[in-house]
Each structure stands twice: as C-alpha cells, then as structure tokens.
Amino acid sequence: MNVKIPEMMDRPEVLLRGNFACAGCGLSIAYKTAISALNRPIVVIPACCSSVIQSLHPNVTYNVPTLNIAFAAHASAASGIARAKKMRGEDTTTVVWSGDGGTFDIGLATWSGAAERNENIIHFCYDNNFYSNTGAQRSGATPRGAVTTTTPGGKKEKRKSIVRIMAAHDIPYIATASIGYPRDLYTKVKKASLIEGYRFILIDAPCPTGWNSDPALTPELGELAVKTGYFPLYEIEKGKLTFSRRGERYRDPEKRVPIEEYLSKQSRFKKMTSTQILEVKKDIQHEWDQLSLFE
Amino acid sequence: MKEMVQTLEKPQTKLMTGSEAVATAAKLSRPQVIAAYPITPQTEIVETLSGMVTRGELNAEYINVESEHSAMGAVIGASLAGTRTFTATSSHGLLYMGELVWWAGLTRIPVVMPVVNRSLNPWNIWPDHQDAMTFRDAGWIQFYAKNNQEVLDLTICAFKIAEHHKIWMPVMVCLDGFILSHTTAQVEIPSQSDVDNFLPSFKPLAMLDPDDPFAHGSLTDSEGIWEQRMSLIAGFDNARVIIPQILTEYTEKIGRLGNYMVEVTGDIDNAECAIVALGTMGEEAEQAIEFLAEKNIKAVVFRPRVFRPFPKKELISLIKQVPRLLVIDRAVSFGNAGQLAIEIQAELYASKVDVKFYQIIRGLGGKDVSYADIAAEVEKVLKEDK
C-alpha cells in the first residue's frame, strides 16, 4: 500500500490557521498529516502541546471533534468514546493524540489497559523527546545526553523503548513514522485505519523551541533521525516486524549518516562528551538489534 | 454469580443487599456504557452488573478498566459521545479516581456513581463518610441513603436528576459499606415499564460528533472559567428546586420515596432535642428516639438525604422549631470538626437561629454506633443543658 501524492493534496484541512504552534512545530505537521487521513475522527488529547496549540476557548483550530482530558486519561476516555459510538451505531474513528510524556510516562498504565482490552482506538504518540508544553523537562523519551530544564547537565539514561513495550501487548498494528517522511506517515495511518482494535503509531516530531534547533530545519531533522539510525521506521503486524522501505538501508551501520550530524544541529546536545556520543551509538545499535528479533 | 432478578415486567419485592439494590436500579435505568474497577465493599455491584451484561439482560457496553482513574475517564468519554453512563467505587478507589472526579464535576458530565462509603485508613475496609466527604466540593450532587430501598429509589432518580438539562451534572449516591452494601433487606423493585415511564432515554446536551465538531475542555482564560463556574453554581441552585420535583414524580409514578430533602422522624412540636445524621446513622437515630420515648424523653431526627446541594433552607426551618440540636458526623475535617456540623453551624449564624448546638463524631473506621449510644448522647445533652 502506497498513497499517491495527489490523494494527499486532496485531504481535508484539520488544523486551521491562527493556532498557537511555534514556528517549525513538528507536531503540527504530524497532526495535519495523520488526522487528515482518517474517516470521521474523534480526537482525545491529554495534557500536551496539542492541548495548547488549539487556541483559546471559545476559538478552536482543530476542525474535528476534540476531547481534552487529564494527562493519564487519554486511552480510558477514548475507550469510553469508542464503546459509546459502537452502542450508538455511529461510524467514527476514535483517536488518542498524545505526546511522549503522556504515552511513555504518566499514561502508560492507562494505554496498557486499553491495549490489553484491544479497544478500537488508534493511539498516536508524537514524540518530541520531553515535556514540551511545560517548557522542556525530561521524560522517559528523552535521549541520553539531551539537556532539558530538569537535566541541565544532560540526561544520563537512554530513552525507553516504548514500541517494544507496546509490542508485548500483541496489538494488531504498530508503526513508527516521521514528519520527515509525510507520505510514509500518511500511508501508515491509512493502513492502520483499515484494521480493527488497538493500533499504535509513534511519530518523530522535532521541537525547535525545546531542541534549540533552527525552525527551518524541522523536516530535515526528521529525515536525519532516520538516516542516522536514531529513529528506525518499521511496522509490526501480528507480532511480525517489517522495516519500512524508507529506512531499511540504515540497518547497516556503515550506511548510516554519522550521528554527530544529527546531534550538532541541536543545542540540547552541545554538552555531550565523546564518550556519551559513543554510548548513543551503542544505544542505536542495541535498539536495532532488539527490533530485529521481532522480524 | 448470584441469581439476580431475571425479569422485571411486574413490580416485586425481594430480599437483597445494598449492592444488589444498586445493580438492580442501574439495570432498570438502562445505562449504555458501564466502566468500573473492583474495590471492597463495592465489588458485588460491578460483579452483578457484568453478569447482567454477559447474560444479555442489560444491553450495555461494559468496560473492565485497569483502574478507577480509567473508570471515570471512560465514562467521561462515553457520556460526551452521547450515552448514559454508570460507574461505582469506594474509599481509596474514589481517591485514585479523584483527578477525574473533579474533571467530571467541573465539566458537567451527567454520570451516576454510587459510592459505597468506606474509611480511608490505610487498611480498614469498614464504613465511614470520609471518602465521599473529601469530594463534597467537587461539583457533584451527593445523596446519602439510609436503607437498601432508598439506595434503589435514589439511584434511579439520580439518572433523571443528573440528566435534567437545567442540572446536567454528576451524581453520587452514597451508601454505607457493609451496613447496607452487604446486608440483606426487603426491597420493592419497580417494573421496567414504570421506570421507563419515569426515566426517558439519554438526550445529550452536547456530543462529540464529526458532523458538528467542537472542542470540549479546551484552554480557557479567566473570564471563560468565571462564566463556567458561575454556571455551575447556578446549576446547583436549579438542582435545589428540581430535585424535589423529580422525587415527587418518582413517588407519584413508582411510589414510596417522598419528595423531601431532609427526612423528619418523630414529634417535632414537643421535641427537647433534634438529632442530625446522614445515611444509616440517621436511621439508627430513628431507633434511638423510640428508645428515648420509653424513658419519656422526646427527640426528633432530621436526616438530610441530600448533602449537595446542601439543604440549608429545609434544615433551618426545621431547626428553628427545636431548642437543642445534636449533630453526629461520620467523618472529620481534621483541624476543625465534622463536615455536617460545620455546614449547619455556618447556616445557623447566617440565619440567626438561636439553638443549643452540640456536635459529636462517631462511627469512624466502622466503629459501631447503636441506637443506645445515640440515645445516651441525647441524654447527655439534656443533662448538660438543664
């Protein structure tokens, strides 16, 4: 399945002008691309940047029904919506649209319950590697070495492999995608929308405000994360992993763009020592090795 | 799973626990989405309802959530998606749910939730009102039932009250753990058609709908929040008026209940002392006044069955008629006094009522309070105030 570009050109406008997103906001690209691919979506948003960028009540820049809910209540509220719409016999697509804080950390038990029940929900996690709307604090998704306001010396631990945790739930569809490759993202969302049950898509969404990167480089940073092997692109269907065509070649460490090229474009990594950079390279290889076990 | 009422074509009388009364009332009210997490002493409610759904006796989606927090999250979502919703909890479960209990209160989600009152002590499963009292300010209507019959009747009324378009807010029906939840008593059960005649199907005020998108719970400035809070305060004022109307309608169509916010038992005209207490302690006080009558002491019981909205006017007009007042709380606002006593005192001052006021706290952590104990307290009051 590969969506043609004209189809993408034709998609509805789901994020309207006048929203509060920063210049170069990665999640806005992710939101527009993913939500516009869905049939009659109802979107549940826990505390995250997306609860802020929709503008101030009574204005709203999301052109789809949206339920803003407490941080750890995304997948529970979505479970309620999905079941209620089933009871009412209405054809809708229930969506969780969460940041990494909500998915990796505070809402982990909630989505785990919903995934175990195999609720009919598409769970998107736009991953900008930290708590962005509160001003860049460390999350379980923050990579080793990154400076955040709560890791001023750089984070000492590697980031959590949320997808491998999700995969342990044996849900019908899992994918990773990047705003650097919107067509790949759009295609994966379309594919997910044709499957019933709990589906999860992790989207790499650079945040120039928190990463201290040039807003104009947002798509390029998305691409570089893939090309350096830092953010592998793949799908897991019925427990079997397939690396996506866009990123498969970076399985070979020789073919990867040096990670330094990715790190050097973001001031959050400027305190990293050469030892830490070596550790990050090991982290990258470790994740690829672990993912290969799912093939 | 216990054998439950199979067909409810005709009114009938059964022996049932408070938990079964809740489940039966819920079933008769036709909730469309139920989400719940088990906790002692609420478990029998959710077990019974899940059995009803599994056997096809109740056409509802039952979500076996992984926590109370998710139970309330799910019913908030389901309610806004256009369905009648139900959950139930107790004690620490209510606290764990707490963030979303407030969310439901402040965003006006018309869910019905029985709370089987249980102590908050780290490991004590016995009844007191500390759990529900912790949420008296959360924007929920609160009922406290005195027996299994009232549990059933109020639970059915709760749906109609919650979903009244001039109220539109969540309702807690509180019942004392074990004393009601696990004790079998005779309960009259209305027929399904009588309940259907009383309680129409769910009519959402606003619904998450792709054909008419809107954002619920979005970022709001101070002006907007002010407007919403004033509207919630007005909603409670509406509830003060509408609750007795709905109780009247229930009594006319189904029977028994009575439309009062505060139940009066005893001879108010000759009473030397009035006792105020919530829930089963209120019913125990009814026994106490009979016991006192044998000793030629005249007392009366004022039992608020609604705590939110607080029935100020009703209480004050009653208190004005008695010389002495004994308020018995089954919870404490630590550093001050029992919540019921605090609120009555405030209203006594506001209404300039001159009454000899006595307050005691009893029954915490399930400590037994018998009619004889209550009678002894009344005698003590009369001895102190000769």
Q: What is the chain-wise order of helices and strands of chain A?
A: HHEHEHEHHEEEHEHEHHEEHH
Order of helices and strands of chain B: EHEHEHEHHEHEHEEHEHEEHEEHEHEH
Ends distance of chain B: 56 Å
Query: In CATH, what is the class of chain A?
Result: Alpha Beta
What overall form of chain A do the CA principal axes indicate? globular
- The protein's oligomeric status is heterodimer
Question: What is the CATH topology descriptor of the largest domain in chain B?
Answer: Rossmann fold
Largest sheet of chain A: 8 strands, mixed
DSSP strand tally of chain B: 15
Content-based structural category of chain A:
alpha/beta
Q: What is the residue-mean pLDDT of chain B, rounded to a whole number?
A: 96
- Name the beta content range of chain A: 15-25%
Number of domains of chain B: 2
Q: Segments of chain A where pLDDT lies below 50 for 5+ residues?
A: none
| Termini gap of chain A | 19 Å
Number of helical segments with 4 or more residues of chain B: 13
Q: C-alpha Rg of chain B, in Å?
A: 21 Å
Number of spatially distinct domains of chain A: 1
Largest sheet of chain B: 5 strands, mixed
* Fourth-level CATH superfamily of the largest domain in chain B: Thiamin diphosphate (ThDP)-binding fold, Pyr/PP domains
| CATH uppermost class of the largest domain in chain B | Alpha Beta
